[in-house]
Amino acid sequence: xxxxxxxxxxxxxxxxxxxxxxxxxxxxxxxxxxxxxxxxxxxxxxxxxxxxxxxxxxxxxxxxxxxxxxxxxxxxxxxxxxxxxxxxxxxxxxxxxxxxxxxxxxxxxxxxxxxxxxxxxxxxxxxxxxxxxxxxxxxxxxxxxxxxxxxxxxxxxxxxxxxxxxxxxxxxxxxxxxxxxxxxxxxxxxxxxxxxxxxxxxxxxxxxxxxxxxxxxxxxxxxxxxxxxxxxxxxxxxxxxxxxxxxxxxxxxxxxxxxxxxxxxxxxxxxxxxxxxxxxxxxxxxxxxxxxxxxxxxxxxxxxxxxxxxxxxxxxxxxxxxxxxxxxxxxxxxxxxxxxxxxxxxxxxxxxxxxxxxxxxxxxxxxxxxxxxxxxxxxxxxxxxxxxxxxxxxxxxxxxxxxxxxxxxxxxxxxxxxxxxxxxxxxxxxxxxxxxxxxxx
Amino acid sequence: xxxxxxxxxxxxxxxxxxxxxxxxxxxxxxxxxxxxxxxxxxxxxxxxxxxxxxxxxxxxxxxxxxxxxxxxxxxxxxxxxxxxxxxxxxxxxxxxxxxxxxxxxxxxxxxxxxxxxxxxxxxxxxxxxxxxxxxxxxxxxxxxxxxxxxxxxxxxxxxxxxxxxxxxxxxxxxxxxxxxxxxxxxxxxxxxxxxxxxxxxxxxxxxxxxxxxxxxxxxxxxxxxxxxxxxxxxxxxxxxxxxxxxxxxxxxxxxxxxxxxxxxxxxxxxxxxxxxxxxxxxxxxxxxxxxxxxxxxxxxxxxxxxxxxxxxxxxxxxxxxxxxxxxxxxxxxxxxxxxxxxxxxxxxxxxxxxxxxxxxxxxxxxxxxxxxxxxxxxxxxxxxxxxxxxxxxxxxxxxxxxxxxxxxxxxxxxxxxxxxxxxxxxxxxxxxxxxxxxxxx
Lengths: 441, 441
What we know:
Order of helices and strands of chain A: EEEHEHEHEEHEEEEHHEEHHHHHHHH
Distance between the termini of chain A: 38 Å
CATH topology of the largest domain in chain A: Spore Coat Polysaccharide Biosynthesis Protein SpsA, Chain A
Largest sheet of chain A: 9 strands, mixed
Number of helices of chain A: 14
Oligomer: homodimer
Shape of chain A: elongated
CATH class of the largest domain in chain A: Alpha Beta
Helix content of chain A: 40-55%
Number of strands of chain A: 13
Strand content of chain A: 5-15%
Mean pLDDT of chain A: 93
């Protein structure tokens, strides 16, 4: 299915800050790129973009779509000043089958588009609506209000509707019938998309799809842009995040991610950066001097925090790759090992007992076994979360935090013993849980 | 689809040794159990078994099928002495739809049954035939010969056919039309299945399915039983076996497996046995005395060999489980770690240099990284093999063999250095290969 994106307008309220509006930067991507990449996640690779205001800038930036792995066709609407209905209407010759209609300034959870897969517009149109009309993400002055009956079919819509029970999200699933409706509406002098949609509603041909609870936002001004950024960042936590990650690391890594986004760094570069920090921490530990141990502890925790940023940027900018994930996991294991080697040497220098090395080897073993069993165990954690059961995950975030705390109080031997015991106990615990899970399959 | 298994005959040539024939033991399972479990692997869970000779023994042994995770219905054929056609005919009231017809004394590769999924017998029957009429697995005196045209439709079949171009494998895919054919054939005094099949062939209703190259064997006498055992054992190698595994370990583990099968040990018990051997080896190394190191080396290699047996028995007896695989992998990692800890301590006792411990930690790291990257890398090895490309896998078999050799010549320090270098080089090599593979996806 093709997606038609309207990117012709001026965006008067953002204009003093960013122009053209579809290229407004947000966490390393423009608004329009966010829309394209989210639609691509839902399986759409064929786009028609209607441009108008500063068309050449947009076309120059996006090109034929190759760099996003999609195909982009452009339609120029010289009437863009008249209204967004005229822009949709301008694409009528490019689209002869049902299509997805998106706004370049409306961001959304890609799961909404996946939900649309079970609908097919046959001589009618669907509009995604949000029943949470008081939502934080909605600007009540500017939103297009929707009045719908229980079917749910839309009865009327508009910015000035006095009675309404939902909000227009700007996501349409259309049959080409929308073009006939727009033609009539334009002939009557109404150049807005809402005008065409209202005509369909009057004929009972505008159905509603309820997407309440999913993330979406109309980015019309600087306040909305700030809200959008906050919502995107809030969605970055991973289901398998451990407690230190959730309570401490993510809060800091999100700030760093915002900052790294501006630099347009590739996620794999950040993976390597986190690895270098860990190697530096390991070297500082290895030397075994008190002040270096403190610095090593801080670097360890910093590496742990930055380790979250690569995934955050990959998810934000749709740059997740199989190799990126493998590189991250592999370098994390090497980083863990180097830190434990440095740690063990520091404790050996302090205590001079060869058994320290055996404990170091056991700590390395346990640390690895945690990562090794995680490949199976995380599936159970995810399953529990879909059932809304709480789960505590003992993982890398906690291991590195223990080392950080021990370095702060210059008690690395304590960290070594705790790690040697706790990681192996945890691995055996996981094996027991997995044995029960797998037997019940 | 139901499977009808004929298990009513006497098996005169095996009778002096094993009786009843369907319960003849072979690598820990009876012949009949092999047939049922192989059919189950191909997705069949509904069985009708025709019994006759020593019926009660067979029914007592197999029961209603619960312990195999299938449903078994029995039909008693009082005419079993007359011929196997009478036994098939006895099941006519139990089967009203197309069904699979199997002999309790014919073993086969379950892939043959998967191949049958693309055929559907509509008013006709299919017989699986083998064009390799000179095959080692075929007893030319006893085999049912088949003459077929190029369609391929079977023209005639029988034990005494003078001109033939294929052999009957005893695997039929039948429509209930076989019962009418048997009725006619029995009325003429021919009680064999071949008699009924010949009638179908005369009407052009017996089609051939070519399964040449797949494993199958008719177990009619002690020689065939020995051949069947050899063929089953030869199929146990894993595609990801390394060179030491292929050239040395598998050759020995197959013997041990044959022997362990008689004890009816569960694969997980053998996993734990191999782990205990490795822990014992580790303890012997740890003590660091010359003669103990030699014993430790031998135990290490023995643990490596026995580590193959759990999988062999699981594959032979269809006891593969997700938990079994996880237990095997996890205990292997613990065993590897313990052996390296013991090894490192022995080298430290000999050299007295603390850097030995750092090398030990690096060897443990590399050893783990091999196992960790294997989860991705093995997919590439398997892919290469389907393309008939050779591949060399540096894995646990080689690591433990290096330790074994070093222990033989009392040079554990050499093993430690080699492992520290080679395992980490291999992990990085894999990461580079995976980066290319994943980028080309």
